[in-house]
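Page 37, continued from 36.
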């Protein structure tokens, strides 16, 4: 597994790097979905340290976790503990469905845009109805079942996930976390 361990305006020593590698290796080795690479970023937030971890699995799924603690090693351990909890849920779901993905997730290319926030200034009409694009990036849209999409959304800690439904192969679907705690699914291919 490849590791990329860095710090934002923090020097990361070899002792911390070896600690991170051993903790992630120990946590991930218990669960299916062989990890391919791990990205760990440390940053300082006031008097506390923030540790953000992202581990890519060979199945195409991504596990993300972050934690804030006053000790940099404690922040790492807390993030790895959260990641381990997510992987435990992932393993339980795989057992519940009694199926394992025979091949990696198929990914399609797409464009992702970040739009500038508008300033609400009361009754004023905007000069243009075109939003200002402040960033344009390439992204991928995975081809997953609905259950896998919900699992990926939860593993990534994201509020929403756009995916192609494996069963339909046309159009995109969306799963999202609702305010009531449930998961919503938008499927444009169903009529009703």
């Amino acid at each position: 597994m490849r590791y990329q361990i860095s710090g934002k305006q923090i020097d990361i020593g070899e002792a911390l790097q070896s600690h991170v590698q051993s903790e992630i290796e120990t946590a991930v080795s218990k669960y299916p979905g062989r990890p391919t690479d791990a990205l760990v970023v440390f940053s300082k937030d006031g008097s506390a340290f923030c540790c953000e971890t992202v581990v890519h699995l060979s199945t195409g799924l991504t596990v993300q976790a972050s934690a804030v603690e006053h000790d940099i090693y404690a922040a790492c351990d807390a993030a790895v503990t959260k990641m381990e909890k997510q992987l435990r849920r992932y393993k339980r779901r795989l057992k519940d469905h009694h199926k394992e993905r025979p091949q990696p997730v198929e990914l399609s290319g797409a464009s992702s845009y970040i739009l500038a926030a508008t300033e609400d200034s009361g009754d004023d009409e905007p000069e243009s109805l075109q939003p200002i694009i402040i960033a344009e990036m390439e992204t991928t849209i995975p081809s997953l079942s609905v259950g896998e999409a919900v699992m990926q959304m939860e593993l990534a800690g994201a509020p929403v996930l756009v995916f192609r439904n494996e069963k339909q192969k046309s159009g995109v679907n969306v799963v999202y976390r609702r305010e009531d705690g449930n998961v919503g699914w938008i499927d444009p291919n169903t009529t009703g």
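Strands lie at 2-8, 35-45, 48-57, 62-69, 106-115, 133-144, 160-165, 173-177, 183-186. Flag for discussion at group meeting. The CA atoms of residues 118 and 124 lie 12 Å apart.
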